[in-house]
Amino acid sequence: MNQFVRGFSVEALAEGVMNTLIITLGASLVGTVLSVIIGLIRLSRLWPLRWAAIAYIELFRGTSLLVQVYWWFFVLPIFGIYLSPWTVAILGIGMCHSGYGAELVRSAIQAVDRGQYEASVALNFPRLTMMRRIVLPQAIRALLPPWGNVLIGVLQGTSLVFFISITEFTAASKLAANATGNYLLFFGVALFGYYFIARALITPFVRWLERRLSGGFVREALA
Q: Which among 161, 180, 157 has a CA at the least distance from the CA of 171?
């Protein structure tokens, strides 16, 4: 019996960690794409688009992620829209954190020296070319350090998806603790597990990107 419980605990934790990593990766990709799009729209000269972006940002930054997940999973079916738990987890967490990311994108673009814009206008660069070749490479450098915090927030947000029946790291730790009665061990594993993923995977990845940027990687990628 003890052997079965230990085996169950290890298997549940392994599945939970894998689910957490998959959701973190998917939600990070969704959040990154939406952050760039909404952040650029936030700077639009057209006020209907600009105000729509502001409303999006305020909605997702000003409400609870858990309540948002509940809306996606429990409320949308009332209107005939049914989403799987995995879709809700990835889209819900990604969209929530894109509200924070969009503001980072906006502030990073606005932090680019005004002279860069004026020089681009003087050289008769089209606006799209100016953004792609001049503004965005500089903005991305300023954006990356705080972007790591957004990615860590995505990781932490995955702990809420067990409410919609996904066995991620936190839920797996709870199941293992209930099965063995060893709450100190398994919640300790969860505590340090999240810390390890944040500090050993996400933070080094962001720092690697920063080093690549210092070598002109962004200009090559956007060329």
A: 161
Which of 186, 163, 197 lies closest to 8, judged by CA?
186
Angle at 105 between CA 24 and CA 114, to 5 degrees: 160
CB count, 10 Å around CB of 84?
A: 11
Which carries the bigger pLDDT value, residue 158 or residue 11?
158
Euclidean distance between CA atoms 5 and 156, whole angstroms: 27
- For residues 83 and 76, the answer to whether their CB atoms sit within 8 Å is yes
* More confident position, 77 or 221: 77
Q: Which amino acid is at 185?
A: L
Q: What angle do CA 69, 58, 195 make, to 5 degrees?
A: 55
**Using an 8 Å Cβ cutoff, are 10 and 140 in contact?**
no
Q: Are 172 and 12 in contact (CB under 8 A)?
A: yes
Closest CA to 171 of 181, 158, 185, 188: 158
Query: Mind listing the pLDDT tens digit for each residue in 57-77?
Result: 999 999 999 999 999 999 999
217 CB-near residues (< 8 Å, 6+ apart): 209
Domains annotated on the chain, with CATH: 2-222 (1.10.3720.10)
Query: Which residue from 43, 28, 62 is spatially nearest to 108, judged by alpha carbons?
Result: 43
| Contact call for residues 157 and 62 (beta carbons, < 8 A) | no
Tokens read off for 56: 């999006």
Considering the entire predicted model, what is its pTM?
0.85
**Helix, strand, coil proportions of the chain in percent (round to 5)?**
85, 0, 15
